[in-house]
Amino acid sequence: MAEGMENWWHHAPVFDPRDFGAKGDGIALDSPAINRAIQKAMDAGGGTVRLSAGTYRSFSIRLASRIRLHLEQGAVLLAADPPPEPTPTGGYDLPEANLAAQFPYQDFGHSYCRNSLLSGLGLTDVVIDGPGLIWGAGLVNGDYEPGHLPAMQPGVGNKAIALFDCARVTIRDINILEAGHVAILAAGCTDMVVERLRIDTNRDGVNLDCCRNVRVEACRINSPNDDGICLKSSYVLGRLAMTEDILIRGNWVSGRYQIGSTLDGSYRLIDEGPEKLCNVTHRTGRIKFGTESNGGFRRVRILDNHLQGSRGLALETVDGALLEDVTIRGLTMRDLRHAPIYIRLGARLRGPAGTRPGILRGITIEDLDAQQSFSAMPIIIAGIPGHRIEDVVMRHIHLHQPGGQSARIARRRVPEAVASYPDPECFGVDLPAAGLFARHVKGLTLHRFTVNCAKPDKRPLTWLQDVIGGSIQTRHLHNLPAALLVHAEAAVRIGVRQDGGRPFMLTQAPRYLPVSPEDAHG
């Protein structure tokens, strides 16, 4: 937030929705009164709409420029249950008329703004802050299950906060519970700060789509059924736009706990409660680029974040986008249920006719420490034939995984899955490398690479196919075969060395590259 606006809020007029008819008793419908308070603040040139302690049952609240919505301690903004039957005049606002119907390349839940609890279109200088609670109890999350209303039904809301084409936005110090399909959806927003939030929700936490100059910092997000922090670059605005100049720093993201238990402090594990998942790898709660990837991503920094009980970090461009200039540093992962890092250039090509595969290049990952409690998946870097990922640098990478994989898996042929949905499962659950699976890559640097397997593992450390140029330097290997450091096919001009061993160069690599025991152990 600009310093001038920060000072202005301290002296701005304050408006209490109770003065406009709000009850705050959890029974009366208070959104009309809150909207009247916002309108009065607009008429005054801006101001703070303050919710004091109480429960404000509401349908859609329409934010405005130069408005601060402040929830005091004990204030709960409660999303009301929608009408059971379709209605154009009751319940949540209808989805706005936009270009999404002409560009249907993203989910319904990401395509509209107005069918939300809080929404803003084309606004400037907007603040939503706490320490109160936004509880999306009446929002739908897009699951088509018995008893769930469809998100497309008129009168239904599916997001806690949606902001489209807004500038100078601050969301801070707020708690968000059960937020529908997305807790915060920002599309086409610039100069935005999201900080010190506590989000405990059914689906996505924070989604940034076609946004510029955004900082997401010091948030705690539990989202076991979908992504915690997700960058997208879709056709949601009816045009191509980049997601760029993004800082994601100092966040805690999890898929491990029952919904609501990180907010109440009980931290109840999913495995111990009614939400236990049959497939424990389904837990999500990760930081991700994609899958919607039409416009592009660049200049993104992901620093000093912690992932727990979730999938790993995913960088995906499969719909024609450029993805470049990404720095990831200081990432710790515990109780991982999937590949620690998944970098994918694919060809799903969900876009207009003629969409071509994108470009993925310039990725730096440093100081990563990952402990996998369930999955033995390696880091995955995978382009497609004719479209290589370029210039990936990884330094000081430490993996701890179960191991125990057989020689049969080490010989497994992995499908290209060119047009598949971009998740590691598209290659199968068991991959033929313990540390790194890389295919269709130009320029790969892997230095100070440590892999510790809890059980002896028969797979090679690295599995390379169509990898051109780079270097691999391992530091410490535990429970991996001494005789097979690298499996390589069509991998050329790659220097390989383990600490203390003799370096060698892959020129025209054979299928299997044996390494002498002294080279393997130093």
Question: TL;DR of this structure?
Answer:
The chain is mainly beta and 522 residues long. Helix content is 6%, strand content 45%. The protein has four helices and 37 strands.
Q: In terms of topology, how is this protein built?
A:
Elements: H1 3-11, E1 14-15, E2 25-29, H2 31-43, E3 47-51, E4 54-58, E5 61-62, E6 67-71, E7 75-79, E8 118-121, E9 124-129, E10 133-135, E11 159-164, E12 167-172, E13 175-177, E14 182-187, E15 190-195, E16 198-200, E17 204-209, E18 212-217, E19 220-222, E20 229-233, E21 243-249, E22 252-254, E23 287-293, E24 297-303, E25 306-308, E26 313-317, E27 322-336, E28 341-345, E29 359-372, E30 379-382, E31 389-403, H3 407-410, E32 436-455, E33 462-478, E34 484-489, E35 492-498, E36 504-506, E37 512-514, H4 517-521
Parallel strand pairs: 1-3, 2-4, 3-6, 4-7, 5-8, 6-9, 7-10, 8-11, 9-12, 10-13, 11-14, 12-15, 13-16, 14-17, 15-18, 16-19, 17-20, 18-21, 19-22, 20-23, 21-24, 22-25, 23-26, 24-27, 25-27, 26-28, 27-29, 28-30, 29-31, 30-32, 31-32, 32-33, 33-34, 33-35
Antiparallel strand pairs: 34-37, 35-36
Organism: Acidisoma silvae
Pfam families: Beta_helix (PF13229), Pect-lyase_RHGA_epim (PF12708)
Protein name: Right-handed parallel beta-helix repeat-containing protein
